[in-house]
């Protein structure tokens, strides 16, 4: 079992059993907290978030949602996908409707699990049982049916049916489209070799760990948070080099200085990396032997992990006539342009934004499920943020860190590089709009609250940097 520092429990499974007990307690008697990194809500006794692994300093008290809407029907709700958005939608529906039928359909062989743990625990994860969001008994108790190993091939919005690859046709009254996303694999020569893996599910993790255990050298293509998590885990098994095509690591979240600080910390942790790495080929005949760059340099490798972002699974929606832009377009209720069809999670976009992060998927799923059940709930997106723990450091990046060339920013910066600590805050019109913490990230709760309310430069200077 994965040991992730769950105080009072021997392993993740025991914790989840405790969570089921907590869920059955009368409201008002539960003591819950919310992780501000991933949005997970759980027992306050826990010292570590079961989804993203961060510690208690990232938890805030959570008052349970007071759900007053209830409408029992004989409707059939079909949920396509069983990731964070899909399972959150199922929970929201059942909280409001005790008698409806809920059917979840997934291509994967496993019940819903905590996907963020895939790269965080790549070197040690054995089975999905260790990271399940609910035990199988929970689905029976809540009368939720799962069709696993099942692929949807057609969504007929006119006749309100879906068709499966095996020929089955299923009718629905409401449909939640939560098919998530797949890893984007750039058109690099040699990327189809068996030792090249893009990690998106449990089978990818098992394959990467098996190859990493016997590999001498590995290359991770992509210097974003998932690539760095995978690199750190692989470094426990073999020598690792990270290749990033951009001019800095975590290019979407960090500015130049923060990228340099993170790079130095990664070097100290023993992981090699290169930016401005224009890749032309993954070399080797029968097996991978290396990764070649445009300038002629070749990095030896027995294993290559590709982490170059994701692309929403939207083709089924597009073919059915549902409006797709960057992802499936939804309104504040997660409704699509097709009657009775809601979309949420990594495959959906709201007001042109597709953040594709766990916390947003959870909230979108709750919103979709609530409205599908007949309630009236509006999605309220939170400030996009992410955290990273690995390479013997920690990092938090949230909001707009100077990325809009049309805006003028003011900044505050604090660094103590001898201790590996760095802070930077971005302001627009004297309101906090972005922040970066590297090293000591214990201020993350206070910073997140500051981002949500847009606190002033003087307030951050006097109460955050120097509390």
TrEMBL record:
Pfam families: Pyr_redox_2, Rubredoxin_C. InterPro entries: FAD-bd_OxRdtase, FAD/NAD-bd_sf, FAD/NAD-binding_dom, FAD/NAD-linked_Rdtase_dimer_sf, Rubredoxin-like_dom, Rubredoxin_C. CDD domains: rubredoxin_like (cd00350). One of its GO terms (molecular function) is oxidoreductase activity. Its cofactor is FAD. It comes from the Bacteria. The keyword Flavoprotein applies. The keyword Flavoprotein applies. This is Pyridine nucleotide-disulphide oxidoreductase. It comes from Anaerocolumna jejuensis DSM 15929. The lineage of its organism: Bacteria, Bacillati, Bacillota, Clostridia, Lachnospirales.
């Amino acid at each position: 079992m994965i040991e992730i520092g769950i105080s009072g429990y021997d392993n993740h499974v025991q914790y989840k059993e405790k969570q089921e007990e907590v869920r059955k307690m009368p409201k008002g008697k539960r003591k819950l907290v919310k992780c501000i990194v991933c949005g997970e809500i759980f027992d306050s006794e826990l010292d570590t978030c079961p989804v993203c692994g961060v510690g208690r300093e990232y938890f805030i008290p959570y008052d349970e949602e007071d759900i007053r809407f209830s409408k029992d029907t004989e409707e059939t709700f079909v949920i396509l996908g069983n990731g964070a958005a899909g399972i959150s939608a199922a929970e929201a529906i059942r909280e409001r409707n005790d008698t409806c039928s809920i059917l979840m359909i997934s291509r994967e062989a496993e019940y819903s699990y905590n996907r963020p743990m895939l790269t965080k625990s790549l070197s040690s994860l054995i089975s999905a049982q260790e990271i399940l969001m609910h035990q199988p008994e929970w689905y029976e108790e809540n009368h939720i049916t799962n069709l696993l190993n099942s692929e949807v091939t057609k969504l007929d919005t006119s006749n309100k049916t879906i068709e499966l690859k095996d020929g089955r046709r299923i009718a629905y009254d409401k449909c939640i489209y939560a098919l998530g996303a797949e890893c984007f694999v750039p058109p690099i020569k040699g990327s189809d070799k068996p030792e090249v893996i893009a990690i998106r599910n449990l089978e990818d993790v098992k394959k990467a760990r098996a190859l990493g255990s016997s590999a001498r050298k590995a290359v991770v293509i992509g210097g974003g948070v998932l690539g760095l998590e995978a690199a750190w885990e692989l470094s426990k098994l073999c020598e690792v080099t990270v290749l990033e095509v951009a001019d800095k690591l975590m290019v979407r979240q960090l500015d130049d200085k923060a990228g340099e600080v993170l790079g130095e910390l990664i070097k100290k942790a023993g992981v090699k990396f290169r930016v401005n790495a224009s890749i032309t080929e993954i070399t080797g005949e029968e097996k991978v032997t290396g990764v070649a760059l445009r300038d002629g340099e070749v990095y030896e490798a027995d294993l290559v992990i590709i982490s170059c972002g994701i692309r929403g699974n939207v083709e089924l929606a597009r073919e059915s006539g549902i409006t797709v832009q960057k992802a499936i377009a939804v309104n504040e209720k997660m409704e699509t342009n097709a009657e009775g069809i809601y979309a949420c999670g990594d495959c959906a976009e709201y007001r042109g934004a597709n953040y594709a992060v766990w916390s947003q998927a959870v909230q979108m799923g709750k919103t979709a499920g609530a409205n599908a059940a007949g309630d009236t709930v509006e999605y309220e997106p939170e400030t996009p943020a992410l955290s990273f723990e690995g390479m013997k450091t920690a990092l938090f990046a949230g909001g707009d860190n100077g990325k809009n060339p049309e805006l003028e920013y003011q900044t505050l910066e604090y660094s103590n590089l001898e201790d590996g600590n760095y802070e930077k805050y971005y302001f627009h019109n004297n309101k906090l709009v972005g922040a970066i913490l590297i090293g000591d990230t214990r201020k993350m709760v206070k910073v997140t609250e500051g981002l949500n309310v847009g606190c002033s430069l003087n307030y951050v200077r006097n109460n955050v940097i120097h509390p």
